[in-house]
Structure formats: structure tokens, C-alpha cells
Amino acid sequence: MKDVLRILLAPLLWLASFSATYGLHGIGCALGWPEIALWGASVFRVALLTAWLVAILIQVAILIVLHSDRFRAASAFTQWASLATAWVGLVAVLWTVYPVAVITACGGNG
Amino acid sequence: MTALRRHRKLSAIWSSEPGFRGWFSSVNHSDLGRMFLVTAFFFFLVGGVLAMLIRAQLATPHSAFADAGAFAQFFTMHGTIMMFLFAIPTFEGLAIYLLPKMLGTRDLAFPRLTAYGYWCYAFGGSMLLVALVFGIAPDGGWFMYPPLTGPLHSPGINTDFWLIGITFVEISAICAAVELCVSILKYRAPGMSLDKMPIFAWYALVTALMILTGFPPLILGSVLLELERAFGLPFFQADLGGDSLLWQHLFWLFGHPEVYIIFLPAAGVISTIIPVMARTTLLGYGWIVASAVALAFLSFGLWVHHMFTTGIPLMGLAFFSAASTLVAVPTGVQVFAWIGTLWKGRPEMHLPMLHIFGFFFTFVIGGLTGVMVAVVPFDWQAHDTAFITAHLHYVLFGGFVFPILAGIYYWLPLVSGRKRFFRLGEVAFALIFLGFHGTFLAMHWVGLMGQRRRIETYDAETGWGAINLISSISSFIMAIGLAMVLIDVLIHAFVAVRGGRNPWKAGTLEWASMSPPPAYNFASLPHVTSRDAFHGDPGLANRLAKGEGYLGDPQSARRETLTVDIATGDPDFMVIYPGNTRLPILMAAVTGLFFLSILIKLYWLTPLALAGVAALALVWVWRLGARTDAGPQDAGRGVTLALAGETEKSPGWWGSVFLLVANATFFGSLLFGYAFLWTVAPGWPPQDWLAPSLVELGIGGAAALTSALAMRLAIRGNRHRARPLPGLAFALTATLVTAVTFAMLLSRVPPPDGHAYAATLFVLGSYALCHALIAGLMLAFAIARARRGYTSPARQAEFHIVSLWTDYLAVIATLSLLAAHLPGFLA
Predict the structure, then answer these.
(1) Which of A13, A8, A22 shows the shortest CA–CA distance to A57?
(2) Which of A12, A29, A99 comes nearest B319 by C-beta?
(3) Which end of chain A is more exposed for a tag (fewer CB within 10 A), N or C?
(4) Is B318 in contact with A103 (Cβ distance < 8 A)?
(5) φ, ψ for residue B577, nearest 5 deg
(6) Hey, is B572 helix, strand or coil?
(7) 3-state SS of A48-89?
């Protein structure tokens, strides 16, 4: 089961961080965080950028861990597949959460 | 023992009852897989007829063919049947029929569960058909958005049929998903490590995991909407703290992964057929596995792209727009791997390949229009137009129906043992292909001209008439093609001449069994050394028939197989299956009574039906096990194995793990709903919070945790001194205290029909109470088993299963209590 988990781990954590960031965005909008200034930006922007950074670091950490001798899978196939999905996790975090850096905070589409 | 004698002996052990009685008592995966497929294609015909009615109505402006009410039932039932009663069950049927053969084993992990799932599907689907026949079918669209489907705007029974019937059918999907996960991971031929699994098994595993995590949000949504309709709990009513958008989130948390749940098995069929037809091996096996996993996960990050026009903030839209474009990458990797496989091989243009090319052409167009609608500004223009209907049909027909038709023609010689005689299939393919594109290319066009989806008529001045007429005529051409496939298959099944084994010269193990396969699949189980086990070893089939593999010496009347280590494929335990029984159909019927009692509001029957299900479940598990230790068993080829019941992690333990994954997703979705309403819905905070109680919080949490710890004590007591009873009794007491705590909490919740907050707490408390009762029942059962001598330090498997459920109770009870009490403390 550990081998299956190795393959699933990175995308699972991407899904968790993606959902958490979306949830944090909802909470921030509901509590008016965009109106509260912090370090030249808003609490909203700082919180979401921090969440993005943490999500990226988690994915990088998974990649490093999977490369390490201690956590390397015994089977070459599992090792290859888990590294491939770890890269998927990292790219997915970079691509799908980047809107926190560039898009209007809580503006509607109306 | 000669091969013929072995065959007769195994057939006597494994065969279902002869004649139609066998339908009701069979637990054999081949029988049930065929029953799933035949039933699913029956529903496909019904859904197809409804599609013809829709196209007949839209063929001309101001058609008097059907009124708006009937038309609403047509399109709702068409979508519902195709998604829930055709596509998913077809995958289940295909996987149930094929996987044990492909994996080189004799049956799936839980044969009675397969049968129970089938009957839940058959009864639930019948419920919807009855509604259709009597003109009271669901009419709110296949995604059933409230407030349209709420009690105010849809007061009739139509919507209830959908909510209750589909939930009933989803039990079948969850059963199949648990079954497939355990079977693929544990029930394989020895030597079949993960990298030697047939590619279809990888796709089926990923799909099953997606069903376990994708379906619970919809089940939750259906429960909440039915509670609102039946008892006035206002989860989706904005004036009472609810929000109709919650339904959309829950529905599409299921609905978008559903698209990939439908596509991935079809991709598994394609990945299996293409290398065989191209006389080569699959290019990029590892890339394809990684892409399937990536696709599965990314598909769970797309649900809001169905909600781009609901007023969600721009940043939220951007998250899901980005994820929607990213999902094209792993899809593209698979498509290029298939093209590469064709490139490196020598493709032969047999009938399955025609449908594969139909898939390529159609699905790629559907994928590209998918990228178009992933772009938010375009989606704002195209949303709810016929363009979207056309896009989804390109994806689903292209991505599922064409590959499944390819699969039917590919595996038909295996199922029937015959070879094709007439050449109707090629003509049928041409009609289907031309008819499909005529229907839906035109629909893209008329959608871009502004035709809304689900309208029952339109004015002649719109200029849509000619396009709709082309679309309707084409759809009838497609229908004729599909009818010809049916005729072709029937002729093949009943009239065609006998064929030989493995006509395609494929390498996967299903072709190493007889055609049609016997009830036991393999007279002895192979030892696998390569991915295409049968390809490099043509003598394998004969050696297996001669009993030269594992378990080649049938013991008395035992249905035997073995399990393997998940990663390496080394044999680890022996399994003895239960025999034929009518228990699954009986339990499905009583489960149906439960759903029926809610549907027709016969609430006195509901607890009786629940008690009936619990009683039958106890009978179900009581029949397993033994009163003496069996010790190591001879599995052949010099290998001895313990029985699965004499291990910590038995098949039942694995099944519980995967069932709890689905259960945890349900619970997580409930917590998500709570948080969503709190932060987004109007009318929050509520006037009254639940009065917080440290005593209730402390006692309830401590009791649930004690139950889990006491269960561990029971396991330790059993292992060291064969004395599990003190720990079990302690755990049972703690579980009952947990149940009482939640009963008290429910008695203190503000009236649940007054505000969505109280309604949510009511559901949360009921969920925890229900799990405390389930854990209590399991503990009482374990005590009874221990007292009757069914357990010993070796026969320990049941305790570990109960322990999983008490652990789960500890987690959800603690979280539920915190969710109930914390707001009051903070306020």
C-alpha cells in the first residue's frame, strides 16, 4: 500500500492545498480581509500568497524526499511513477494557484 | 487428475444454479458482469429512445409533439439514465466481468457484495423506470438544481424519485468501487507486481478510487435536498440561512470527476486494444499510469468551472479556469502515447479499430471545445446553450461510447466463444459516426447562434429550424446504427460459428482461459513474469488447465483463491469464498424497502427496513469464519499460505478501509457544507446557537476515544491470552456512552426547520449517532463471535475490522462535537 500511496501522495496534497486555498479565499472575502492593510498589501493577499508558498514548499519537499535513498521505492516502476506524479503536483500548484498573485481579490463577475 | 476431470470438479464447485434461478443466487463475477452489462445496455436503449423523442420535438419550430412538462421529463431522464444507469454500470459490468480474468484469479474480493450491488442497481433503476412509465419522472434537469427542485417549486413526487432512486443506485457504485479496489490491489496472480498489472487494471483502480471520493458529495447533496423536501430542513433556502449554491458545489464536486470516471475506463479499453491491434506493446506504460493518476486528481479541482456564471469572485474563477486548462495535459499525454503505439506497430484495421478511430476524431474535438469553455469569458457566452450540450456529447459519446463499442467487439469472442459472421458492424459504425457528427456538429452551430439548452420549442424567425432538422435527421441515422450493433451482437451471441481461443493474439491473461470462460476462470492460477503474460508463453493456457499453477488441486467443495502482496505480487494468504446465496438479492430488496418507505412517506416502515438490513448484514457476516484454526494451507507449487481469516489485514479489513475512505469523504463534504453556509450564505449568524456544554463535549469525546483504545486492548488480550471479552465489553460500553451523548445533543439542537445552522447540526449529530450505533452493533457481534468460539489468537481478523470502525468513530465524534460546541463557546 505504501507504493500506491507514494504515487498518490503529491497530487493528493495538491488537491488538499488547492481546496484549502479556495476555502481561505472564501473566508477572506467573507471577513473583509482585502480591506485590511498589511506590509503594503492586504491581509487577504498576504494570507493567500503565504498559502501558495507553503503549498509549493510542500511539493518541493515531497520531490526531495522521494529522491532520497531513505524513502526511495524498492521498485523502479513505482519510483518512476511517484516522481512523475510529484512533478505533476508541483506544476499543478504553480499553475492553478498562481491567480492569488495576479487577480483582483474578491471582485465579482457581474 | 486429468484436465477434464479437474474442469468437471471445479465446475461443480464454482457454477451457479442452472436456469433462471441462478440469476437470483449467483455470486459469480462472470454472471454478474454479464447481468450488469445487459441491464446497462437496456437502460442505454431507454435513454436512446428518450433522445429520439427530444430530437423529434426539436426538429421543427413550434412542434406539437410533446408539451413542456413531458419534454422536461424526457431530457431529465435521458441525462439521468445515460450517466447513472448506463455509463457507470457499464464500467462496473466490464470491470466485474474482465478484471479477475485479466488479473489471473478466480473471482473478485467480495462475490456477495458484487451481487448486492447489482440488485441495488436493478431495483433503483427500476424505480426510475416506473416513474417514467407513469409520467411522474424527474423533470428538473439531470443536475437537479434547487430552488427549482425544492419543495416550493417542485412539490410533486418527481424530484423525490431522482433523489431516492439515484442514491439507491449509488450504493451499487460504492459497492463496486470497494470491490474493485481490493480486488485489483490484492487479488492478482502471484508474481504480478504493480508494474506488471494490465493497463486496464490501473485505469479501473484509479476510476474506483474516484468513485469512492466523487460520489459521496452527491449522496450528501441528495440526502440534504430530500430532508429539505420531506421535513423542511432549509439547506438550500436563502431566507432561512441556506444557499442553493451549496447544491451546485456538492453536485459538481461529484459531477466533474464523473466525466473522468466515465472516460478513464474507456481509456483503459483503448490502451488495451490499440497495442493488440497494432501488433506491438503499449508505448509509455509508466507515463500512461502517471497521466491517469494526474487526470483523476486534477478532475477534482475543476468543479467550479460548471459554475462560472453564478457570481463567484474572479479569483475563484481563475483557480478553476487554470485547473481546467491544465487537465488537458495528462489527457494529451495519453492521446500521444496511443498515437505513438500505433506509429511503432503495424496496425490492423479490424472492427474495434474503427471505433477507436471514431473515438480519436470525436474525443479530441470534445477536448478542444472543453478548453474553449474553460476560458471564463467564452463560457459566459456559451453557458447553458446547445453548444455545451454538443460539447458534453462529444466528450461522453466520443470518450465512452466509441471505446465501449470497440471493447464489445474486441471481447465478444471471449464472452461468446464464437467468431463474427455477418459484417453488419462496419455499416453500423459508419452510420453511428456520420449520424453522431451530423447531430452534434449542428448543435454546436445552433448553440453559438443562441439556442438555449432544454427549451422545448423555438420560433421560426430564429433561423434555427434547418440546423435542428439536420441535427434530428442525423440523430435518427445514429440510432439506426446503434440498433444494427445490437442486432449484430445478438446474431453473434446466438448464431455465429464457434471460434478458437485468443483470435486477436493478445497478451493479457483473460485470453488464457477457455472461451467462453468457465465459472472458475482458471483451473490453476498462473505465476506471472511479464506484463503480457500470455504473449510470450502460448503454452500457458494448457499448463494451467493441467493444474500446473497454484491451487491446481481442488479441495472438497471450497471455492479457493489467493491474495498477493500489493507491491511485489508475492502470494500472501489463501481465501475461501462463500457459495451461491439469495442473501444479496434479499438484502437489496430490504434496502429498497427503506428507500421506498421514504419515497412514499410510509415512515413507520423506515426503521423496520433499517432493522431488516442490519439483521441481514449480521447473517451475512455470521456465515463466514470457522471455529477451529486451519493453519497453513497448501497452495501448490510448494507454497503454503495462511487463511485470510487468520491474519490482521483480511480482505474485510481492506474493504472497510476503502469504504471508510468514501465515508470520510461524505463527512468531509458535510463539514464543507457547514463552512460554506457559514461564510457565504445570507442570514448568518443564526439567532440561537446550540448552548455549549463542556461536559457533553468532554464525555462524548472521551467515550469515543476510549472505545477505540479499548478495542486495541481487546486485540492485545486476544493475541496474548485469547481473552478479548473484557476489552470488547469496555469498548461497547464506551460506544454506547458516545451514542447517548449524541442523542442528548440532538435533543438540544434548535428546531432544525428554523435555520440551516440547526439543520446542519441535526445532520451532523445524526451522522455521529448512526456511527456510534454501527460501531456498537459491530462490537456486540464481535462479543457474540468470541463467545461462540469463532475467534482465537490466530482467527483475529474480525477484531481488526471492528477496530477500524471504532477508530473512525473516535475521529468523527470528536470533530462533530467540536463543530457543534465551538461556535457557542466563541459566541
Answers:
(1) A13
(2) A99
(3) C
(4) yes
(5) -80, 155
(6) strand
(7) HHHHHHHHHHHHHHHHHHHHCCCCCCCCHHHHHHHHHHHHHH
Cβ <8 Å between A105 and B315: yes
Which candidate, A80, A74, A59, places its Cα nearest to that of A15? A59
Q: How many residues are present in chain A?
A: 110
State residue A73's pLDDT score.
Answer: 81
Give mean pLDDT in consecutive 10-residue pieces for chain B, a chain of 827 residues: 87 90 93 96 97 96 93 96 96 96 96 97 96 94 94 93 96 96 96 94 96 96 96 95 94 92 95 95 93 91 84 84 87 94 94 95 92 88 95 95 96 90 89 97 96 94 95 97 94 84 91 92 92 83 91 85 93 93 97 96 95 96 89 88 91 96 96 92 88 94 97 94 91 97 96 95 97 97 94 93 97 96 88
Give φ, ψ of A43 to 5 degrees. Answer: -55, -40
pLDDT score recorded for residue A108: 60
Please say whether the beta carbons of B208 and B181 come within 8 A.
yes
Among chain A residues, the shortest Cα distance to B308 is held by A109
CA distance B214 to B478: 32
Residue B318 CA: distances (Å) to CA of A30, A81, A96, B125: 18, 29, 8, 38
User: Which stretches of chain B sit within 8 Å of chain A by CB?
Assistant: 185, 193-195, 286-287, 289-290, 293-294, 296-298, 300-301, 304, 308-309, 311-319, 322-323, 326, 330, 376, 380, 566-568, 675-676, 679-680
| Alpha carbon distance B195, A3 (integer Å) | 11
What is the reported pLDDT for B2? 85
Contacts of B326 in chain A (CB under 8 A): 91-92, 95-96
Q: How many CB atoms lie within 10 A of CB B561?
A: 26
3-state helix, strand, coil in chain B (%, to 5): 70, 5, 30
Question: Which of B286, B311, B322 comes nearest A77 by C-beta?
Answer: B286
Q: How far is A105 from chain B (nearest CA, A)?
A: 6
- In which residue are the cell numbers 479457493 written? B560
B604 CB neighbour count, 10 Å cutoff: 7
Of B286, B293, B312, the CB nearest to A11: B293
Polymer length in residues for chain B = 827
pLDDT reading at A103 higher than 90: no
Quick one: which of B816, B771, B782, B787 has its CA closest to B711? B782
What are the residue ranges spanned by the domains of chain A? 2-100
To 5 degrees, how large is the angle CA B318–CA B319–CA B321? 60
Contact by Cβ (8 Å): B737, B699: yes
- A–B: how many Cβ contacts below 8 A? 126
For B682, name the nearest residue in chain A, comparing CA atoms only.
Answer: A30
- For B640, list phi and psi in degrees, rounded to 5: -115, 140
Q: Are B787 and B627 within 8 A, CB to CB?
A: no
Q: Higher confidence at residue A93 or residue A33?
A: A93
Q: Which cell is B401 given? A: 461510447
- For residue B185, the chain A residue with the least C-alpha distance is A1
Chain A CB contacts of B298 under 8 Å are: 11, 92
The fold adopted by the segment(s) B685-826 is: Four Helix Bundle (Hemerythrin (Met), subunit A) (1.20.120)
B294, B301, B308 ranked by CB distance to A85: nearest: B294
What nine digits make up the cell of B279? 501488433
Contact list, A2 vs chain B (CB under 8 Å)? 567
**Domain range list for chain B:** 280-345, 353-515, 685-826
- In angstroms, the CA B637 to CA A94 distance is 52
Contacts of B636-639 spanning 24+ positions with Cβ under 8 A: B636/B524, B636/B547, B636/B549, B636/B550, B636/B551, B636/B552, B636/B553, B637/B527, B637/B549, B637/B550, B639/B190, B639/B550, B639/B571
